[in-house]
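can u do me a favor
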């Protein structure tokens, strides 16, 4: 499949790379890594990166270009790290002459039937690792320092710094190859890890105030009032989901963040698959890292009930796990 993707890339003079809404490190890393490598390989092609909602902490790798509507009809559009078409940032992908999807989600669905190719490796812990393999395995595409920094950042963030399930030899080999391009990892980790003092104070608040369901699902609701009190943005609060990650007996943890017009739900777990529950609340994602969108407290109660039942039956069936 990599060969077919390269063949299409060679065919088109205009290539536009899209990705999902609310981008994370792997999403921005996959997009910027691919765009940088394409620009490095084809100085005469027009290559664009779509989306101006790059979170501040990823500003050191993210790329965002103005793209006029009229060029789509002659363009190859590549969508990275996105499982369902409703989540693609910017609807203009639909006007592409040819469309390619490169993804690593378990619940990936085809975007369309014609003039379309997809490569999905749900076994890859990061989409950036797939892009790195695509570039490294080709005789045509040329990696450079900028592309490797973006892709390495994507791998680092989506694996929780090489911590999560799915970190394997293939992924480590891809990461090792990227390191041969002289990435400044100290700079990268500073960009990823440094937080404002306010965020640490809110983290302390989470430790003190997180709540627990009957079976041990832990959760935190970041209301507008709390975020205002601590002077943190919705994205900064959402980033605290893993503050609750390592509590014995609590294999599912969740944050709810009031974004104003909706409540963003971030679901995380060890061992237990939570993506089915996410799917019931306008969401989806990976087995152990999913997201959903809800609109009121009633739905919050309902999703917590569902997670509590799931957690209780999982514990019942897996007494050795905690
Ligand atoms: P997040 O908690 O936003 O980091 O999301 C975790 C994973 O779930 C990511 O891979 C997202 O792409 C996916 N995800 C988040 N929200 C949704 C949604 N509304 N629909 C489908 N997938 C989602």
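np, heres the sequence
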């Amino acid at each position: 499949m990599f060969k077919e993707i390269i063949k299409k890339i060679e065919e088109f003079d205009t290539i536009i790379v899209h990705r999902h809404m609310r981008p994370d490190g792997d999403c921005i890393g996959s997009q910027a890594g691919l765009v940088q490598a394409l620009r490095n390989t084809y100085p005469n092609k027009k290559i664009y990166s779509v989306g101006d909602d790059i979170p501040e902490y990823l500003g050191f790798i993210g790329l965002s270009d103005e793209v006029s509507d009229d060029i789509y009809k002659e363009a190859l559009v590549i969508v990275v790290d996105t499982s369902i078409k409703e989540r693609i940032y910017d609807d203009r992908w639909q006007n592409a002459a040819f469309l390619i999807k490169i993804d690593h989600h378990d619940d990936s669905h085809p975007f369309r039937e014609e003039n379309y190719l997809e490569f999905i490796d749900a076994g890859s812990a990061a989409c950036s690792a797939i892009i790195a393999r695509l570039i490294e395995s080709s005789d045509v595409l040329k990696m450079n320092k900028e592309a490797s920094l973006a892709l390495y950042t994507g791998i680092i963030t989506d694996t929780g710094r090489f911590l999560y399930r799915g970190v394997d030899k293939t992924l480590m080999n891809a990461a090792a190859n990227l390191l041969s391009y002289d990435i400044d990892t100290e700079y990268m980790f500073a960009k990823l890890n440094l937080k404002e003092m306010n965020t640490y104070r809110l983290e302390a608040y989470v430790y003190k105030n997180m709540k627990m369901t009957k079976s041990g699902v832990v959760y935190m609701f970041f209301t507008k009032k709390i975020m205002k009190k601590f002077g943190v943005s919705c994205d900064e609060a959402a980033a605290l989901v893993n503050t609750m990650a390592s509590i014995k007996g609590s294999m599912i943890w969740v944050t709810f963040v009031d974004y104003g017009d909706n409540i963003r739900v971030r679901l995380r777990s060890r061992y237990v698959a939570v993506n089915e529950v996410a799917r019931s609340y306008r969401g989806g994602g990976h087995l152990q890292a999913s997201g959903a969108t809800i609109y009121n407290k009633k739905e919050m109660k309902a999703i917590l009930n569902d997670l509590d039942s799931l957690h209780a039956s999982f514990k019942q069936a897996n007494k050795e796990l905690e």
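The chain has a mean pLDDT of 97. hope that helps!!
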